Each structure stands twice: as C-alpha cells, then as structure tokens.
Amino acid sequence: MAFSPENRSGTMSGILFVAIFSAAATYIAGLAPIHALGLSPLVIGIVMGIFYANTLHNHIPDAWDTGITFSGKKILRFAIVIYGFRITFQQIMDVGLEGFLVSLIMLSTTFVFGSWLGNKVFGMEKDTSMLTASGASVCGAAAVLATEPVLKAEGHKTAIAVSMVVLFGTISMFLYPVLYSAIIEPAAKGFLHMTPSQFGIYVGGTIHEVAQVVAVPFSIPNAPIEMANNAVIVKMTRVIMIAPMLIILGIYLSYSAKKEGENSNAVKLVIPWFAVYFIGVAGFNSFHLIPQNIVNIINSIDTFLLTMAMTALGMGTRFSKFKGLGLAPLYTALGMFIWLVIGGFIVTKIVCGLI
Q1: Per-residue pLDDT tens for 126-159?
Q2: Are the CB atoms for 136 and 110 separated by under 8 Å?
Q3: Which of its termini does the chain have fewer beta carbons within 10 Å around, N or C?
Q4: pLDDT, tens only, 339-349
Q5: HSE-up of 326 (CA within 13 Å, CB side)?
C-alpha cells in the first residue's frame, strides 16, 4: 500500500518529486515561445519525465517509486473527475445538432478504425492500439490518461500513445490554418467551400488537443468569433463523450474476456467510475452554483494535477521497453490523422449540409 507505515515516507517524497517536475513543466509551458506552439504543461511534463527515466532514474531512491506510481494512477483519476468543471451541458446544446453529430461520428469512427488499424494491420497489441486511438478520437493526452486505467495498461504504452498524439496534434495546429487560407476560405467554391462557422465545427471535431483547437482560429487572420466558439464547444462535446466511451469500452472488455473463455468468476465488468463521476461534475457545473473565478481556480489546479499524472507516466517510461515496436505506432497514428483531416472534412460537409 502506498501509504502504509513502511511506504508512507517514500510515497510522500515521490509525490513531492513529481510535483516539483510538474511545476517546472507549468513554468516552461507558460513561456511565450512554447505557449505560441500550443504545447500544454501535460506535454512538457511527459517529456521531462521521459528524460528523467532514461538519465537520472538510478540516482533517485527506489522508495520514491510508490509516490510516482500513485501520481500516475490515483491522482490521475481524481484529475479526470474534476475535469468536468470545464464543461456544461448548455455548451453542448448551444452548438446544435450538427456539432453533436460530427463529434459522435468522428469519435466513434476514429476509435474503431484506429484500434483495428494498429492491432490487425500493423500488429500492435490491443492496449497500445486502443490508447493511441483514444487520444486521436477524443481529446489527446487527457483521453489517453483516462483510458489507461480502464485497460490497465503499462505506463510505457501510454507514453507511446501520448507521443503520437503530440506529434500529429502539433502538425494539425499548423496545417489547418493553411487549409483554411488556401482552399476552405469563404471565397472557395463547390465542395471545398466552408463557412467560418462550419470550419469551426471541423476544427473542433478533428483536432487532438483542446489547446490546439483553441490555437487554430487565433492563427487565422480576422477569423470570425463564431469560428472559435464553435471549435471550442464541439471539442468540449468530444471531451464529455469520453465518459460513455469508457463505459462502453469497459463492457466490451468484459464481454471479450468471457468470449475468449476466461474464468467467468474471474472476469468482472470494468466500469470506470471516475468517468461516471466526471459526468456528474459536468452536470453540477451546468447549474453554475460556483462563481466562475472559483471554477477557474479549480481548472488551474486540475491542469496541474493532470501534469503531475503525465509527468509520472513519463518517469515510468524507459526506451528499452519500446524495442520491437518498430514504426507501427507511427503508421497507426498517421492513418488516423489522414482520416481526421480528410474524412472529418467530408463528414462535416455532409452533416452541415443535411441539417
């Protein structure tokens, strides 16, 4: 146990160690050049954690490992729960049926396609395939973190998925403004034409990270405000869908285990209760009972806790564990990226054209 008498001191030291790294990651992410790239503290944290794991790990007491593990597991679940303070059900209603359908279609198709592509085509094991797919289909690194406890995956698999999300999410952040300026601007004709409002739905429904979604409209000169609003609301709709996705995933894993002949008494339905609590917090936040300045403070704390979880996962990542994977994760993430950019455009055009 992490806080048993014999482990308590090491656990507290490990948590403090992770917190110090996370504070440094938060500071770095706030620097103007890094902030301009849209890199969140979560991404900086995992990079720093991986650097530590492959350079300085042997110089730190082994007793601290329980605190690092606690940060990557327990603190993670709590952080996902209070992530619900970023969302209200009113935001989802405001964007309308178009945004909801685009979010639902892109999330479900990307997750199923990515899981199949990684496992069946490129030969990755199921955990890494599903983690990579969850990051691309929902909300980047935070979705990978939320999916990891349901799959009970090893930390290095989570780090692989996060690295793919970061790579292609960053590419998206630079690609979409170019697409808008080159072919999707309001002056475009025919099928390539998109209104700023539709483009916002496209951005929110297909880009990986929340920070990257926010950055894209502000990278387009004179972009109308409805573009940014639609992008953020559709993105947050995808974020809240992670809860039902994880519940369905838990049911699927239980069913698959039974179908493969495992002892029925040993197979338990995996219900990610933290995802249920996440919906509850979002529902509570929809009543606006807490002043916005307090909610902002809660969200800042939550970002730091998520950074701690990401940093801790990075600290458990050794490059030696990646041997044998080859380019399969990269090919899988690339396949999903192509689907998000091209398929997402087609889905957005069709949905917005029908409704």
Answers
A1: 889 999 999 999 877 778 878 888 887 777 788 8
A2: yes
A3: N
A4: 999 999 999 99
A5: 8
Count how many domains the chain has.
1
Amino acid, single-letter form, for residue 274: F
Task: Identify whether the C-beta of residue 208 lies closer than 8 Å to the C-beta of residue 235.
Answer: no
Nearest to 134 by CA among 148, 122, 120: 148
Q: Which whole-number Å values give the CA distances from 138 to 18, 146, 254, 291, 323, in the listed order?
A: 26, 10, 22, 28, 28
Q: Does residue 3 belong to any structural domain of this protein?
A: no
- Residue at 1 is within a domain: no
Each residue of 88-131: pLDDT tens digit? Answer: 888 767 777 888 899 999 999 999 999 999 999 999 888 899 99
User: Residues 120, 331: contact at Cβ < 8 Å?
Assistant: no
Render pLDDT for 329-339 as a digit per residue (tens, 0 to 9): 999 999 999 99
Between these two residues, 265 and 319, which has the higher pLDDT value? 319
Query: Per the domain annotation, does 2 fall within a domain?
Result: no
CA-only gyration radius of the chain, Å = 20
Q: What is the DSSP letter of 208?
A: S
Number of H helices, E strands in the chain: 16, 0
Q: What is the pLDDT of residue 268?
A: 52
Give the domain extent around 308. 8-319+327-354
Residue 175: both structure tokens together: 């690609």
In a domain, 153, yes or no: yes
Q: How far apart are CA 203 and CA 208, in angstroms?
A: 9
